[in-house]
Amino acid sequence: MALKLGVIGTGAIGQDHIRRCSQTLLGSQVVALTDINLEQAAKVARDLNLTAEVYADGHALIQSPEVEAVLVTSWGPSHEAFVLAAIAAGKPVFCEKPLAVTAEGCRRIVEAEIAHGKRLVQVGFMRPYDEGYRALKSVIDSGQIGEPLMLHCAHRNPTVGENYKTDMAITDTLIHEIDVLRWLLDDDYVSVQVVFPRKSGKAFAHLKDPQIVLLETAKGTRIDVEVFVNCQYGYDIQCEVVGETGIARLPEPSQVQLRSGAKLSTAILMDWKDRFIAAYDVELQAFIDGVRAGQVGGPSAWDGYAAAVTADACIEAQNSGAIVPVSLADRPAFYV
Ligand code: NAP
């Protein structure tokens, strides 16, 4: 029997996830939708030809006996209440990042899940499902380059809108590196610093761009991440791991190599959705399969909490210029 999903939030990523669950992935059926804008939810159901009921709000959807598992794809500040309600109802829940907008909110979810006694929450960090990052992790875990000592990373977007503020370089952009590098190294961060190079003339006046975020891990690995969201030329994700005996690089997305007009070239993607489209499919399929097998896996509520604590430290470091400690609580045995 297909897993009956209810989706809260039918905006951009909500519609993408509804489409992939109904048209691409196996083993699920979207039976319930809601959005703050009910007309939009009804339109999505019509446009995608779904036999799905539109509920008055997220809490009514979670309570419905028709809904076996919940996808939370609404606005970030609404996530915590919906995830807590799903846990209280004993229903598995896939929550887009952020798990909650504060570290304390993430802790409340962690505590509710521990009290429930079984994992119910998967956080929508998709990079650990990207083929390239998985290949990179296999090389690191195999010991072929020895212990990782340094990482040089970049997260570049062609442009951002005027509403993108300096702290969003952390909460909306770096947040993916914060999660995936912790997973890649199987390590936690202990301190962060943010430095601002010469500002790009292509950025809006209010935005400090680019930024360099320096992270130190508990094992002593040093990471630099360049966040440059007006780089103009493409959406470009780089990750180079320098180990004791060699260097491993995140593979480039596969693109046709072109010989034309006296040039040898490969295209660079312009849109983050194209770069990680396969990873979104794999992460949601893993959620569906995990729920059907009675075993939710993937990025956990604890990972959501660790990301929130690290992001808070990065924002403090942006404002102070200082090296800021990342103070994580002790990891509960439940998440080891
Ligand atoms: P969006 O297009 O603004 O969609 C959010 C939708 O949720 C909107 O339709 C919004 O309605 C609705 N909404 C807000 N509060 C709600 C509530 N209390 N109950 C029901 N619906 C509510 O934003 P988005 O780009 O899809 O992003 C949604 C979430 O996904 C964000 O947390 C974002 O960070 C995350 N996201 C993650 C990734 C990733 O790479 N993993 C990528 C994109 C987005 P209104 O527009 O009327 O407010």
Question: Topology of this structure?
Answer:
Elements: E1 3-8, H1 12-24, E2 28-34, H2 38-47, E3 53-54, H3 58-63, E4 69-72, H4 79-88, E5 93-96, H5 103-116, E6 121-124, H6 131-142, E7 148-156, H7 168-185, E8 189-195, E9 211-217, E10 222-228, E11 236-243, E12 247-249, E13 257-260, E14 263-266, H8 272-292, H9 301-320, E15 324-325
Parallel strand pairs: 1-2, 1-4, 2-3, 4-5, 5-6, 7-10
Antiparallel strand pairs: 7-11, 8-9, 8-15, 9-10, 11-12, 13-14
The structure holds NADP nicotinamide-adenine-dinucleotide phosphate.
The site of NADP nicotinamide-adenine-dinucleotide phosphate has 22 residues, from helix 1.
Can you offer a commentary on this structure?
The chain is of the alpha/beta class and 336 residues long. It has 2 domains: 3-127 and 278-300, NAD(P)-binding Rossmann-like Domain (Rossmann fold, 3-Layer(aba) Sandwich); 130-269, Dihydrodipicolinate Reductase, domain 2, CATH 3.30.360.10. The protein has 9 helices and 15 strands. The chain has a 7-stranded mixed beta sheet with strand order 12-11-7-10-9-8-15, with helices on one face. It has a 6-stranded parallel beta sheet with strand order 3-2-1-4-5-6, with helices on both faces. A two-stranded antiparallel sheet has the order 13-14. The longest helix is centred in the last third of the chain and has 21 residues, at 272-292. The chain starts with a strand and ends in an 11-residue tail after the last strand. The structure holds NADP nicotinamide-adenine-dinucleotide phosphate.
